[in-house]
Design brief:
The structure holds two protein chains of two kinds. Chain A is built from 15 helices and 18 strands. By secondary structure, chain A is an alpha/beta fold. By secondary structure, chain B is α/β, with parallel strands linked by helices. The chains are: A alpha/beta, B alpha/beta.
């Protein structure tokens, strides 16, 4: 019997001769990451463990992104502690203005290669599966253990293989692929499993779109969402990293827990209704819902691809008077490229607020939280009750085309209607 | 290990980390100071039921969402000894075990428990008693039982740090 891709990665990172799903193993970490919320707590746990140094300073990255720029004194102190301790330990630290949202930064700066084990103190560390890595999110105590020993206790996950076929329509993106999966298996359907994306439709997705797909794997409860490395992965990594890697994929005779199909030919833009990402509907089912805020950004959909998609819809339009639009490029690099391409100017001219990279309002932290009774369309990954502010607000999750169209129309609308000039 | 306590039922499916502990309070890093925000987005009145040894009784996919340890840290600070439920999200489950907070999956027992029920759990045998009625829980892997017996990942790690630094284990 062969192995799945994530079983192969487990096997290459533990001392066992054979692994089966459910078996608890200690796996070696190739990279350990935390942020201004989970990092300081992890450093505290590390001290309680009696440890004074990390296992390998070249394999640890800390990023100030959640409450950055600091929203208040308490947040400022967390960032201060993250920075001071990172410098004392001799690990890489990305300060505000130097990096951006952790997952975007790690990917674009070449920290991540296929086949690696990346453990992060953030649930969306599953994003790194987009490059064929086993990226997985954990809490601060796990991070502390990884920092000290370079190892994680981990149950070998089973695998749900998602076959993506066909070709995307005009306004369909990677976001819709993962929403289609969430619609099929629900918020707990991937628990203790890896979601693996294969087939011509998966191979045709750009790296930016794969990042969005992998990012929401945790919304199905999965350990990670993984794309076997291919020519697109190699092209993306060219010039970005000198870390060695090899392309692996699941063996043809590997054992899978389940197979799912997503047919792009019949896929429409989707939208997750309040208050869970599994509540998926077609955009066409909920048109006319008034929208008070549009949020374009976050670790799922704050890429250059997303900003370009939104700009396609917004060009020549203004943000509707009912609506506030916030644009948050995921990283400094995305920000600068968007600036150079004129995208940020287009957003500002249309009446949007453009923010420095931050996790900010995505988790209701700061920089654009919602009032009671407000509806938001966000390109983010979570629409839990109260996620973006008031517990009486409602968040709808969608792709960048749909978000931009809502900003123009002031209500949920199909992007084609905006591009056709049909008034809301 | 035998764990006992009074049941506090947290109803609902997919109860997420954000309603259990809203994001705007994540800049708190002292467990005692986290206590006033537990259940804040779900039902703050649940906190009034927390007193002494408590077993939280939960639904399907409890703890879905974020990696924030504020949720189990605040639970532990309130005296929660165990979370007994239908099923659990992975990171929440890990965080509890790492912090020495037992997690037991037993849908029948969770369905039978009411707020105020007397609950006793034998983590080794998997026997769950709810007001004197007996139920069989899914077995907890040996690795997790050992970690719980030690009090979580920190004491577990401390022994290893002592060895790697050439000290004897205290």
């Amino acid at each position: 019997m062969g192995y799945t891709l994530s079983e192969k990665i487990m096997l290459a990172h533990c001392g066992e001769d054979h692994v089966v799903p459910g078996q608890i193993v200690m796996i070696r970490c190739d990279l350990v990451m935390a942020n201004d919320i989970t990092g300081p707590v992890a450093f505290g746990q590390m001290e309680k463990m009696g440890a004074e140094r990390v296992f390998d300073t070249s394999k640890v990255v800390m990023v100030a992104d959640h409450f950055a720029p600091a929203k208040d004194e308490r947040s400022a102190i967390l960032q201060q502690r993250l920075k001071q301790r990172s410098l004392e330990l001799g690990v890489t630290f990305y300060d505000q203005g130097r990096g951006g949202i952790e997952h975007a930064v790690l990917v674009e700066d070449g920290w991540v290669v296929p086949g690696m084990v990346l453990v992060g103190g953030d649930s969306h560390t599953c994003t790194h599966g987009a490059l064929g890595a086993f990226g997985t999110g954990v809490g601060s105590t796990d991070v502390a253990y990884c920092l000290v020993f370079g190892e994680l206790w981990q149950a070998v996950p089973g695998t749900i293989q998602v076959h993506v076929s066909g070709e995307k329509g005009r306004f369909v993106t990677g976001k819709d692929v993962i929403l289609a999966v969430l619609a099929q298996i629900g918020a707990g359907g991937g628990t203790n499993k890896t979601l693996e994306f294969v087939g011509p439709g998966a191979e045709a997705l750009s790296i930016d779109e794969r990042l969005a797909v992998a990012n929401l794997a945790v919304e199905a409860g999965a350990e990670t969402g993984i794309f076997p490395a291919d020519a697109k992965t190699a092209e993306y990594l060219e010039g970005r990293t000198d870390r060695p890697w090899t392309a692996e994929r699941s063996d043809p005779d590997a054992s899978f827990d389940r197979h799912l199909q997503v047919d792009l030919d019949s896929l429409e833009p989707l939208i997750a209704l309040p208050h869970n990402p599994e509540n998926v509907a077609r955009v066409s089912d909920v048109t006319g819902t008034p929208v008070h805020q549009v949020y374009l950004g976050n670790c799922a959909n704050g890429t250059l691809t997303d900003l370009r998609q939104a700009a396609e819809v917004l060009r020549g339009h203004f943000v509707h008077p009912r609506t506030r639009m916030i644009v948050v490029p995921a990283s400094q690099k995305v920000y600068r490229r968007a600036l150079a391409e004129g995208l940020l100017d287009l957003f500002v001219e249309a009446g949007a607020s453009v923010s420095t990279p931050t996790c900010g309002a995505c988790f209701g932290g700061h920089m654009g939280v919602l009032a009671p009774g407000e509806n938001a369309v966000a390109t983010t990954n979570r629409n839990f009750r109260g996620r973006m502010g008031s517990s009486e607000a409602s968040v709808y999750l969608a792709n960048a085309y749909v978000a931009a169209a809502a900003a123009v129309a002031g209500e949920i609308v199909e992007p084609a209607a905006v591009l056709a000039g049909v008034p809301a | 290990m035998i764990i006992g306590g009074k049941a506090v039922v947290v109803p609902g499916r997919n109860v997420d980390t954000d309603v259990l502990y809203p994001g705007s309070y994540l800049n708190v890093d002292d467990a005692e100071l986290m206590k006033p925000y537990l259940f804040e987005g779900l039902d703050p009145s649940l906190r009034e039921q927390l007193a002494g040894d408590t077993v939280l009784v939960t639904g399907e996919n409890f703890g879905t969402g974020s990696s924030r340890e504020h949720v189990p840290l605040a639970m532990r600070a309130w005296g929660v000894r165990c979370v007994l439920g239908y099923s659990f999200a992975r990171i929440f489950h890990r965080n509890c075990i790492n912090l020495g907070l037992a997690v037991v999956s037993c849908p029948d027992a969770a369905a039978a428990a009411k707020s105020g029920s007397a609950i006793e759990i034998d983590t080794d045998s998997g026997v769950v008693m709810v007001d004197g009625r007996e139920f069989a829980a899914a077995p907890i892997p040996q690795f997790m039982l050992e970690m719980l017996a030690k009090g979580g990942l920190i004491p577990w790690a401390r022994a290893r740090v002592a060895v790697s630094h050439g000290h004897t284990q205290s």
